[in-house]
From TrEMBL:
Keywords: Iron, Iron-sulfur, Metal-binding, S-adenosyl-L-methionine
Descriptive protein name: Fe-S oxidoreductase
PROSITE patterns, alphabetized: RADICAL_SAM
Protein species of origin: Nostoc piscinale CENA21
Signal peptide: none
Length: 547
């Protein structure tokens, strides 16, 4: 899609943030030359978190979430320039796209490194200037020696210098140029992402970011070093403007707050929530919200009550491990402020289904760790857990410690870059056992059944508003339900277990829960079956190359 843009702002590592108008506190750079900018987001390798097995049940859906970072690039560029955006999770950029462009801008994460470098190669074959920004290059610029220009860090002074350079130089530079942000633009001055360049109907869910940064220092996490420990916020008005823009772009049913920690600054979150509640009421509760938060959110009843009224239905918590010693070892002590199982039940009591991160391969793991994780899953009744092998990311305390200990391993036949204290193959098999048993259809549906009885009923009763009962929503729901009943209920290899859940839901008219369990459960079950067959990776950041 090619457009003339009306905003001026940039790209930022990983999921990002924005505002709705050019920065009013400084003069906007007015370019002297016309430029065509091709913004490309690389394709993800398949993983647990891409939810790819659910897409065939969802009609037009072909990717997980729109990439906010690169959409900020499109919104930050001068309005006089033409911008084309391609998400290669939907379709690859064509030769004609590269030929059209003057400059190719790319953003991505470490897991996308091979695809990022391939885009650079294709662009150079057409003689185009290439620019790379985002979390991967900001953390490890040495990974990308062949790009013409590197944008390191977040939106700020480097972005302005980069734009001016691209305006004044029309040929590839003789050697790589790096623009590094020294002064970050406040999030309150960010623009709204260029949602007019995307069709949100093609995505599993939409996303928004309210804050950046996290006050905690978990050993394995690179967020504090990339984005800081003092959360920076957008204004509530910015968030509402983004939600309005999303509604104009597609038929969204859920919006995920991709903040590093939605409650990193609780005072700011408390100020945001009344605005979200008012927006939901004014618009007829058109969407569900989900977020990432630390488990100690369970100790803030006033915050939870407002989240419930704003219709937050899912919260992802990095539980990582149920073992106290292990939590201390990875500096995840915020999970110890109250018993984990009690915290999960508190969140459930406000209608929030908990999603949990689980890490296998910690130094404290023993041969009994798998048993303890599976018992925790049974007791917690958490349906979905991202069970990953430990992987050391650059610019983390874990990376530095393992590097000093000589325990970093770079071998593309391995699932992890960590030399575990337990035998490597034993750790991998422990992961395989956990993920395959956790997502046995009977065990998974038991946990969903618990939440259908004890969690979902605690949500507010939302109105049958025009926004919720529109023909587009009805058509989408019928598509999902028909595909689930046919592909899972008739042709699925666990159809008998499915009908034990589906028949009572259909009889009671609980169609929304049936669709949720059908979609999410199908991906989890199919992914676990792929893991059992050794055709899926044991980590989102797996090094293993599958040909």
């Amino acid at each position: 899609m090619t457009v003339q843009l009306k905003s001026f702002q940039n790209q930022i590592p990983v999921a990002t943030d924005l505002a709705s108008a050019p920065n009013p506190k400084k003069a906007r750079y007015v370019p002297l030359h016309h430029r065509r900018i091709l913004c490309i987001f690389p394709k993800y390798s398949r993983s647990f978190g891409t939810f790819h097995h659910a897409y065939p049940l969802m009609g037009n859906v072909r990717a997980f979430m729109p990439p906010q970072g690169i959409l900020i690039v499109a919104a930050y560029l001068p309005q006089e320039w033409e911008v084309r955006f391609i998400d290669e999770n939907l379709r690859p950029a064509k030769k004609s796209d590269y030929q059209w462009a003057d400059v190719v801008i790319v953003s991505g994460m470490h897991i996308q490194k091979p695809q990022i470098n391939q885009i650079n190669q294709l662009a150079h074959q057409e003689g185009k200037i290439t620019v790379l920004g985002g979390p991967s290059v900001s953390g490890c610029p040495e990974y990308y020696p062949d790009f013409d220009i590197l944008h390191l860090g977040e939106l700020g002074d480097a972005s302005d210098r980069m734009i001016e350079y691209l305006d004044q130089h029309h040929q590839r530079p003789p050697q790589q140029i790096r623009f590094e942000t020294k002064e970050r633009l406040p999030l309150s001055e960010f623009p709204t992402p260029a949602y007019h360049l995307v069709n949100l109907n093609h995505y599993f869910l939409a996303n928004v970011q309210f804050s950046s940064g996290c006050p905690y220092r978990c050993e394995f996490c690179d967020i504090p070093e990339l984005y800081g420990r003092n959360p920076r916020m957008k204004t509530p008005e910015q968030v509402l403007a983004e939600l309005d823009a999303m509604l104009e772009s597609g038929n969204i049913g859920a919006v995920y707050f991709v903040d590093d920690n939605f409650v990193g600054d609780r005072r700011a979150t408390m100020q945001l929530l009344p605005h979200l509640i008012d927006w939901q009421k004014r618009n007829g509760y058109p969407i569900q919200f989900a977020c990432e938060a630390t488990l100690n959110l369970a100790q803030s009843p006033k915050l939870l009550e407002m989240m419930r009224e704003a219709y937050f239905c899912t919260v992802f918590c990095g539980i990582e491990t149920p073992e106290t010693e292990a939590l201390h070892s990875i500096s995840k002590v915020q999970n110890l402020s109250m018993p984990i199982l009690e915290a999960v039940k508190v969140l459930n009591s406000y209608g929030m289904e908990v999603v949990s991160g689980i890490i296998i391969g910690l130094d404290t793991d023993t041969p009994e760790t798998a048993d303890r994780i599976l018992e925790f899953i049974r007791l917690s009744q958490i349906p979905m857990l991202t069970i990953n092998l430990l992987h050391a990311l650059p610019r983390t305390p874990l990376w530095r410690r393992l590097e000093a200990e000589g325990r970093l391993v770079f071998d593309d036949s391995r699932e992890s870059n960590v030399e575990f204290l337990m035998p490597y193959q034993q750790v991998v098999e422990m992961w395989r056992r956990c993920i395959t048993e956790a997502y046995q259809p009977e065990f998974l549906y038991q946990r969903f059944a618990y939440n259908m009885e004890h969690t979902y009923p605690n949500r507010i009763a939302v109105p049958n508003s025009p926004a919720r009962t529109s023909w587009a929503n009805i058509r989408k729901g019928l598509t999902y339900l028909t595909n689930i009943l046919l592909r899972v209920g008739v042709f699925g290899n666990y159809r008998q277990t499915f009908w034990q859940m589906a028949k009572p839901a259909l009889k009671s008219g609980n169609i929304e829960s049936l669709i949720h369990v059908g979609l999410v459960g199908h991906h989890l079950i199919q992914f676990a079956q792929d893991c059992a067959a050794h055709t899926e990776s044991a980590s989102f950041y797996s090094q293993k190359i599958r040909r």
